[in-house]
Amino acid sequence: MVQNMFRTGFLVRATHTLLTWVITLVLFLHNTDLRKCEERGELLLPVLFFLLVVLSVLLYFAVSLMDPGFILSDTVKGAQGSHEEMESMIPQTSTPRLRRCGYCLLQQPMRAKHCQTCKHCVRRFDHHCPWIENCVGERNHRWFIVYLMVQLLTLLWALHIALSGISPSVTWELWFRVNGFLLAALGVVGVFSVVVALLLGCHLYLASINCTTWEFMSRHRISYLKNCESEENPFDRGIFCNLWDFFCICRTVVWEKMYHRTTTNSV
Q1: Which of 71, 187, 232, 236 has CA atoms 20 to 30 A from the CA of 47?
Q2: Cα separation of 43 and 258, whole Å?
Q3: 161: which strand partners?
C-alpha cells in the first residue's frame, strides 16, 4: 500500500500542496502587507495573490498528471503512421535508424528515451522530475516552463510579503519568538526561489537552442549527436524559430526529417 502511494506520487503532490497552503496561511495571518491591506479594506492585492497561488497549484497538478509523451506502441505503425511513406524516402545512410528499447521493446523515435521510473519511453525526453513525480517530455515541457514562470512569480511575491511582516523586538529571543513562523516561511520561500529561478533559466536556454537536458548532459553517448561537432545541433533553427516551435506548435514532430534535412544541408 505504502509503495503504491510512493509510486503514484501521492505523497510528493500532497507535500507540495500542504506546504504551499501552510506558507500562504502564515503570510495572511501575520502582520504582513496582505494583512494590512485586509484591515484597510483593500482586497485587490490579497485576492490577486490568492489567485496566483491557486494558479500555481493548478499548473503543478496539470504538469504532474499530464502525459509527457509516453510511447505505447511501435512508432512506425502508430504515432508516425501518417508519415510512414515520407520517412521511407529518407536515405538510411544519412539518418540513424530507429532503435528498439531494451526495456519496453518498442521502437524509439529520435530524441526519445526510456524512463526507468515511469517504465515508459518518452518522446523528446528531457528529464524525470522528482518534484512533480513525472517525466518532462514533448507534451508537457512547455507547460512545465509556464509552471516555473508562475511559480517563480508567486515565490518572489511571497518573499516580499514575508519580509514586510518582520517586526523588531527588544531582545533576540523575543524577536525569534514573534517572527519564528515568518522566518521559517522566508527560508523555505527563499530556497525555492533560487532553485526555481535556476531551473527556469536553464530550461529557457535549452528551449532557445532546441536541446533537451538529456541531450545536453549525455551528448557524447547519444547516437545521433556523438558524431556532430561540439557546438553543432542538428535541430537548432535559430532562437526565435526554436521558441516559437516550442511554445506554439502543439503536434508530434518527426525529428528524423529535420535531422536529415539539416545534415544534408550541412554537407
Answers
A1: 187
A2: 52
A3: none
Lowest mean pLDDT among 5-14, 23-32, 119-128: 5-14
Of the ranges 37-46, 77-86, 172-181, which one carries the lowest mean pLDDT score?
77-86
Tell the residue number behind the cell numbers 525529428, with chain if given.
Answer: 255
Distance separating alpha carbons of residues 213 and 97, to the nearest angstrom: 22
What's the CA dihedral at 119, 120, 122, 127 to 10 degrees? Answer: 0
Confidence (pLDDT) at 260: 61
The three cell numbers of residue 12 are 510528493
Residue in the block written with cell 526555481:
196
Q: State the pTM of this model.
A: 0.86
Is 211 one of the annotated active-site residues of the chain? no
The band of 163, judged by pLDDT with boundaries at 50, 70 and 90, is: very high
Q: Are the C-beta atoms of residues 9 and 134 closer than 8 Å to each other? A: yes
Distance CA 40, CA 38 (A): 5
Q: Given 37, 118, 121, 129, which residue is catalytic?
A: 129
Query: Long-range contacts made by residues 172-180, C-beta under 8 angstroms, separation at least 24?
Result: none
The x, y and z cell numbers of residue 64, run together, are 504532474
Angle, to 10 degrees, between the axis of helix 141-164 and the axis of helix 172-208? Answer: 160
Angle at 250 between CA 217 and CA 196, to 5 degrees: 45
Torsion of CA 86, 91, 94, 97, to 10 degrees: 70
